[in-house]
């Protein structure tokens, strides 16, 4: 589901945006959830709960705090949310480039121009999501992008990282400490000085080892036992 926030003080303009957004979602078979705010202040008051918004459509001309100022506040919290500006005055369009907006649309809004901006925003969102859910590996021969969901575990020996995937193995040179920093803690756990495992594939934990779904046995360092058990129980909500 795509969450879209609209910050627009005109009810008429909001109804137009609502109609166009639902039409775009239907055309692209995308489920959307729309949230409407009538002022920058109202949006800021709910800022923390708005940090899961994917796209924000901002009217530049609003009373008190305008859309440009609001966008700068948003960027202090999040650099990735897709922002689309709408304005009735051409001269305002040059003021918002510093916040990295997807586009600036002039009122009266044209459906095809909004659709184009939404397409660009959606592509950006998918690219960011894909980047967050994959690991870039540089080997001697190629650069490979690997989905986290395909990685069972990493093991390091002879100064090389060996990645055990669902259907193959990849080897490349990297320090395990650097790899550990690069991987999301929500997916991976370093259970041994030479091993990092994908939490999703852990079947059980024993006294000195853990077993994966394919019955691979991975050692657990003595000093990491409590941490491994804690992370495992939290991950599977035990």
UniProtKB/TrEMBL annotation:
Keywords, in A-Z order: Coiled coil, Phosphoprotein
Coiled coil listed as a keyword: yes
GO MF annotations in UniProt: DNA binding; phosphorelay response regulator activity
PTM annotation (4-aspartylphosphate): residues: 59
Domain (Response regulatory): residue spans on this chain: 3-122
Residue ranges of coiled coil: 111-138
UniProt xrefs under Pfam families: LytTR, Response_reg
Positions of the HTH LytTR-type domain: 135-234
UniProt superkingdom: Bacteria
Name listed for the protein in its UniProt record: Stage 0 sporulation protein A homolog
Organism the protein comes from: Cetobacterium somerae ATCC BAA-474
């Amino acid at each position: 589901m795509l969450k879209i926030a609209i910050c627009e003080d005109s009810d008429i303009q909001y109804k137009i945006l609502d109609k166009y957004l639902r039409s775009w979602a239907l055309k692209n078979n995308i489920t959307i959830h729309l949230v409407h705010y009538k002022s920058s202040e109202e949006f800021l008051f709910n800022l923390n709960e708005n940090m899961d918004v994917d796209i924000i459509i901002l009217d530049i001309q609003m009373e008190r705090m305008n859309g440009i100022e609001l966008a700068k506040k948003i960027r202090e919290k999040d650099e990735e949310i897709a922002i689309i500006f709408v304005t009735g005055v051409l001269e305002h369009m040059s003021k918002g480039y510093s916040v990295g907006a997807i586009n600036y649309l002039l009122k009266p809004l044209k459906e095809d121009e909004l659709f184009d901006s939404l397409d660009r925003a959606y592509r950006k969102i998918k690219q960011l999501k894909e980047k967050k859910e994959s690991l870039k590996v540089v080997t001697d021969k190629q650069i490979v992008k690997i989905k986290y969901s395909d990685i069972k575990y990493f093991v390091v020996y002879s100064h090389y990282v060996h990645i055990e995937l669902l259907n193959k193995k990849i080897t490349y040179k990297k320090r395990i400490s650097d790899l550990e920093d690069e991987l999301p803690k929500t997916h991976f756990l370093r259970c041994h000085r030479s091993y990092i495992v994908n939490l999703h594939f852990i079947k059980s934990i024993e006294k000195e080892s853990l077993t994966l779904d394919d019955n691979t046995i991975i050692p657990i360092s003595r000093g990491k036992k409590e941490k491994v058990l804690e992370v495992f129980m939290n991950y599977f909500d035990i």
